[in-house]
Amino acid sequence: MVNLSSFSSIHFLFYSLVISLSSSVICGGIEKDHEALLKIKSLITRDPYGALTSWNDSLHLCDWSHLYCGKRHRRVTYINLSSQGLEGSLYPHVGNLSFLRTLFLGNNSFQGAIPQEVGHLYRLRQLYLYQNKFKEVIPTNLSGCFNLEEIGLSNNELVGSIPKEISSLTKLTFLSLFNNKLIGGIPNILGNITSLELFSVRGNPLGGSFPNILSQWKNLREFYARGCNLTGTIPHEIGHLSRLTVLSLAINKFCGVIPTNISGCSNLEELYLSDNELVGSIPKEISTLTKLTVLSLFNNKLTGGIPTILGNITSLELFSVAGNPLGGTIPDTLGLMKSLKEIYFGGCNLYGTIPNSLYNLSLLANISLSDNQLTGGLYSAIGAMLPNLVFFFFQLWVNQLSGPLPASISNCTSLELLELGKNNYGLLIISYKDNLPSSIGNLVGLNTLSLCGNQFTGNIPSSIGNLQNLEGICLDENQLSGQIPDSIGNLPSLITLNLSSNMLEGVIPSNLGNCHHLLTLYLNE
Ligand SMILES: *[C@@H]1O[C@H](CO)[C@@H](O)[C@H](O)[C@H]1NC(C)=O
Ligand SMILES: *[C@@H]1O[C@H](CO)[C@@H](O)[C@H](O)[C@H]1NC(C)=O
Ligand SMILES: *[C@@H]1O[C@H](CO)[C@@H](O)[C@H](O)[C@H]1NC(C)=O
Ligand SMILES: *[C@@H]1O[C@H](CO)[C@@H](O)[C@H](O)[C@H]1NC(C)=O
Ligand SMILES: *[C@@H]1O[C@H](CO)[C@@H](O)[C@H](O)[C@H]1NC(C)=O
Ligand SMILES: *[C@@H]1O[C@H](CO)[C@@H](O)[C@H](O)[C@H]1NC(C)=O
Ligand SMILES: *[C@@H]1O[C@H](CO)[C@@H](O)[C@H](O)[C@H]1NC(C)=O
Ligand SMILES: *[C@@H]1O[C@H](CO)[C@@H](O)[C@H](O)[C@H]1NC(C)=O
Ligand SMILES: *[C@@H]1O[C@H](CO)[C@@H](O)[C@H](O)[C@H]1NC(C)=O
Ligand SMILES: *[C@@H]1O[C@H](CO)[C@@H](O)[C@H](O)[C@H]1NC(C)=O
Ligand SMILES: *[C@@H]1O[C@H](CO)[C@@H](O)[C@H](O)[C@H]1NC(C)=O
Ligand SMILES: *[C@@H]1O[C@H](CO)[C@@H](O)[C@H](O)[C@H]1NC(C)=O
């Protein structure tokens, strides 16, 4: 016969044993967390929003704000104190929060060092300490956090080099170190992090050459190394990064050519190579990058013209080659790039006319063709065809465009800057003729109207008084005649009015005194 009551009591005994055992485990662990959190709080010298007020013994630790505990172990797994205006430093006891998976302390004013003890947090997956005032070096012991997937340390004052030790973090996908003071180059050993998807070191004076990581970073999608003082050439192997969507190497000292093999980066959407010392021609192979939206090559030493075949990149939205001695003409195929919003071709030694196909780009907002040797005129239907223009500047000191200013320009109602004048160098080779169209008064968004050094004749249209946002009018060095329209006195924002060197006559409108912001007034002969 079974003694039911003794069975039950054994059963009961067994369970109480399990419960007391496990609660002592929980208790020991949570005490460690408790102590660590209070230590962390003790080094916070400013807490303007009371983010840590609830971190006291009137509540169970798991009910404190800005953190969560795991359901099973009741240990702290998640802390998010981002953007709480906290000041202070980070206590080494943070390394005792051994169940922590997520630590967000971004956008505060933590200072001092990132403690080496962080390296004890082997369960940590996300470490975001960006936008603080952390100084000193990146702890080498971070390599102990072998589950780390994301590291965000940008916008601090970290010094020293990128620790080679982090190359053992084989789960890392996101490494963001931008805007610090890191030196010592980009270590080749980082190539071991084959899981990496985003790498950003921009704005660090790293120096050195392009790292030898290209055969390993197969998963890389975004690479940012703008302004890193990098030298040498851009390696041909760049084409191995077939998943890359953003490559930003602007403002460095790269020399040599743009590798033709860049066409291997078939997913590339944004390519920034501006402000380097690149030579040779723009590789035709770029035309196969059919997802490209940004092609920014300005301020290099590229020659050989703008390849016609680039018209194949129909996805392109921004095309900048300004400041390269390219030569040649503006290819007609530009008209195929239907997504173009911004064209910057200033200072490229371009000659010939502006191809009519350009007027087919109905999304165009900003165009600069300044400092070239372009000839011909503006297409008379410009306004109907480019309705979205915001900036339109020719600054034509070397350009030699001529003919009337098309009245249809008044249909570009978004226009904020209209600059068709000569530049400061004083070369007067452009000649826009005929009257200023009175429809110019429809350009109500205009803040700068710069048409100096042309051959405009007739009166200044009084409709100019409709342009309530105008801050600058430069109509000097034309052949304008008649009186200055009274309506100019209606322009509340006007700062500069330059009408000198025309054939204007009569009196200065008395209501100019209403232009309260007027600082510069030129009316001399
Ligand atoms: C402790 O936390 C509770 C809950 O947030 C809060 O109401 C209380 O003011 C805190 N006590 C102290 C001394 O900060
Ligand atoms: C962390 O907290 C900030 C500020 O309260 C919030 O904006 C952000 O979404 C939080 N981040 C996450 C990942 O929960
Ligand atoms: C940074 O934190 C402050 C509060 O301290 C907040 O007002 C600001 O919006 C935050 N900035 C960002 C970029 O999150
Ligand atoms: C907590 O961290 C400190 C500093 O790293 C260490 O000295 C201490 O032994 C740790 N305490 C526990 C309970 O692990
Ligand atoms: C850093 O890591 C080394 C090697 O693992 C270890 O000996 C040392 O104690 C760690 N330092 C701290 C402060 O945890
Ligand atoms: C990098 O990877 C190679 C090959 O897997 C390995 O031999 C080397 O130890 C790794 N280096 C580091 C620092 O992890
Ligand atoms: C860039 O690197 C050169 C050496 O290549 C060094 O002389 C120079 O100081 C560095 N510039 C900056 C801004 O770090
Ligand atoms: C050029 O890129 C292709 C992949 O598109 C690659 O197979 C080839 O090895 C690369 N050449 C060099 C010199 O890296
Ligand atoms: C350019 O695009 C046209 C039409 O899509 C295509 O036939 C041609 O092969 C492309 N040229 C190159 C060099 O990719
Ligand atoms: C402008 O586009 C239209 C329709 O797509 C086309 O027929 C015309 O030839 C294009 N004009 C120029 C100058 O490319
Ligand atoms: C045009 O240029 C201005 C000034 O650089 C910029 O703010 C604006 O975003 C540009 N517009 C478009 C549509 O790209
Ligand atoms: C402005 O555009 C409309 C419609 O496209 C057109 O009818 C009108 O003539 C244009 N105005 C000028 C001055 O070209």
Describe the model:
By secondary structure, the protein is mainly β. It has a domain at 401-411 and 419-525: Alpha-Beta Horseshoe (Leucine-rich repeat, LRR (right-handed beta-alpha superhelix)), CATH 3.80.10.10. 8% of the residues lie in helices and 20% in strands. The protein has 2 helices and 33 strands. It has helices spanning 4-42, 382-385; strands at 44-46, 67-69, 76-80, 87-89, 102-104, 109-112, 126-128, 133-134, 150-152, 174-176, 198-200, 222-224, 231-233, 246-248, 253-255, 270-272, 294-296, 318-320, 342-344, 351-353, 366-368, 373-376, 391-393, 400-404, 417-419, 431-433, 448-450, 457-458, 472-474, 479-483, 496-498, 503-505, 520-522. The strands form 5 sheets. It has a 20-stranded mixed beta sheet, with no helix packed on it. A hairpin with a 6-residue loop joins strand 2 (67-69) and strand 3 (76-80).
